[in-house]
Amino acid sequence: MKEVKVRKIKNGTVIDHIVAGQALNVLRIIGIAREYPRTTVTVAMNVPSGKMGTKDIVKVEGKELKEDEVDKISLISQNATINIIRDYEVVEKKKVKMPSLLEGVLVCANPNCITHFENIKSKFIVEKETPIKLRCIYCERVMKEEDIVKQF
Amino acid sequence: MDIISIKDLTKGEIEKILDLSEFMEKNMHIQNSLLQNKILGTLFFEPSTRTRLSFEAAMKKLGGVCIGFATSKYASVEKGENLIDTIKTVENYCDVIVIRHPKEGSARLAAEVSVKPVINAGDGANQHPTQTLLDLYTIKREKGRLDLNIALVGDLKYGRTVHSLAYAMAMFNASITLISPEGLEMPDELILDLKKFNVTLKETYDLESAIPRSDVLYVTRIQKERFPDPEEYEKVKGAYKIRPESLKNAKQDLIILHPLPRVDEISPEIDQTKYAKYFKQVYYGIPVRMAVLALVLEAVE
């Protein structure tokens, strides 16, 4: 019998196949504390997985997360899947998709970038997905994976 | 239309600006009222001689007037006003904004905030598109075309002028030789950008061997503060200085350009030679900026 570590949710969103250890960063990227302050959230880390060895899972109860909220996860976990649950059943399942523009998620690595001095959201164009390459639309500086992971 | 980064412009748009610049140059002596009743606001948060004065000269040649400040010392910036507020204020006073600011990305932000067209006159180490356009125009006027052998000499790591010019020349299928001291090579990221185009690229530390095949020698300053060891700086500075004897194997029709200000990377004896075009380059800045102003203000098609 399959061992159940986290109970099923009735309604909401299950973010599965998160790179092991990245679950808390996923919560940070979605801004869960800010956007859904009263929502029950379950986090499972380092869960055994056939495909990935180990993985993290995040369950958000009672909320169906929208695409623009979850796509940002692809920054740290490109193979994460999003399952929308209604009445204990998966009604929709999809992979996260890298957005073409990332707004307000990251901080520009260039210390002399205007975004650090004015009250504005950072904006990055996704120039390449793998390996990831972002470009600040303001200072035009390129950010690579090492600049991105440092921020979480 | 804004002019923020050379990368925003297509090859066709650059060609159009260069053609328009030529038109402006031909008609520069005639009283012109293309931008009559238009006001240019020059916001120079950082000092500049050439760029600001040539924008003002260009505006006046087109019948317009100029307002602005030449250092942030006198502006409300000193009182702590942020850039966004400054732009939202100044755009009420003028029809077009030219901005120079020490922070990278400031011009893009200004353009985002302003309903009036914005021209970037240098945002930190990032972009200075009208410099690139006037460099291209100089080459085109002096050599007739852009698909040439160009050698970029000096600090290729931090120099924004050479970054943008290399990018633009790559668009026009030039053959580019990058010559810099060790440690000041062009960043890999920018090299990758260049390779998107059909470009022949060579990197070397040896200035002398690169000169004979060059049609254009673009020289830039090597800044002392880039070197922790002053002795090292002196050595490097000497090795990358253009002297009359450096040109003994140069092509007869080589042209030497420099964005200026020059310190001593080109010896003054060169000024008298037929190769020296850097002051002509300054002159070409006027018609190019006339073209850019007329274009963003939609005074021309």
CATH architecture of the largest domain in chain B: 3-Layer(aba) Sandwich
Oligomer: heterodimer
Strand order of the largest sheet of chain B: 7-6-5-8-9
Q: Which CATH top level class of the largest domain in chain A fits? A: Alpha Beta
List the helices and strands and how they pair.
The complex is a heterodimer of chains A (152) and B (301).
Chain A: E1 12-19, H1 23-30, H2 32-35, E2 41-49, E3 53-61, H3 67-70, E4 81-86, E5 89-95, E6 101-103, E7 123-128, E8 133-136, E9 142-144, H4 145-149
Antiparallel strand pairs in A: 1-3, 1-4, 2-3, 4-5, 6-7, 7-8, 8-9
Chain B: H1 11-26, E1 39-44, H2 50-61, E2 65-69, H3 83-90, E3 96-101, H4 106-113, E4 118-123, H5 129-143, E5 149-153, H6 160-171, E6 175-179, H7 188-194, E7 200-204, H8 207-210, E8 216-219, H9 230-239, E9 255-257, H10 278-296
Parallel strand pairs in B: 1-2, 1-3, 3-4, 5-6, 5-8, 6-7, 8-9
Description:
The complex is a heterodimer of chains A (152) and B (301). By secondary structure, chain A is mostly beta strands. Chain A has two domains: 12-95, Aspartate carbamoyltransferase regulatory subunit, N-terminal domain (Alpha-Beta Plaits, 2-Layer Sandwich), CATH 3.30.70; 101-149, SH3 type barrels, CATH 2.30.30.20. In chain A, 14% of the residues lie in helices and 36% in strands. Chain A contains four helices and nine strands. In chain A, the strands form two sheets. In chain A, strands 2-3-1-4-5 form a five-stranded antiparallel β-sheet, covered by helices on one side. A four-stranded antiparallel β-sheet of chain A has the order 6-7-8-9. Chain B is globular and about 55 Å long. The mean pLDDT of chain B is 94. Chain B has ten helices and nine strands. In chain B, α1 (11-26) packs across α5 and α5 (129-143) crosses α6. In chain B, α6 links the parallel β5 (149-153) and β6 (175-179). The interface between A and B is medium-sized, with 17 and 19 residues.
Features:
heterodimer; A: 152 residues; mainly beta; Alpha-Beta Plaits; SH3 type barrels; 5-stranded antiparallel β-sheet; 4-stranded antiparallel β-sheet; 4 helices; 9 strands; B: 301 residues; alpha/beta; Rossmann fold; 2 domains; 5-stranded parallel β-sheet; 37% helix; 15% strand
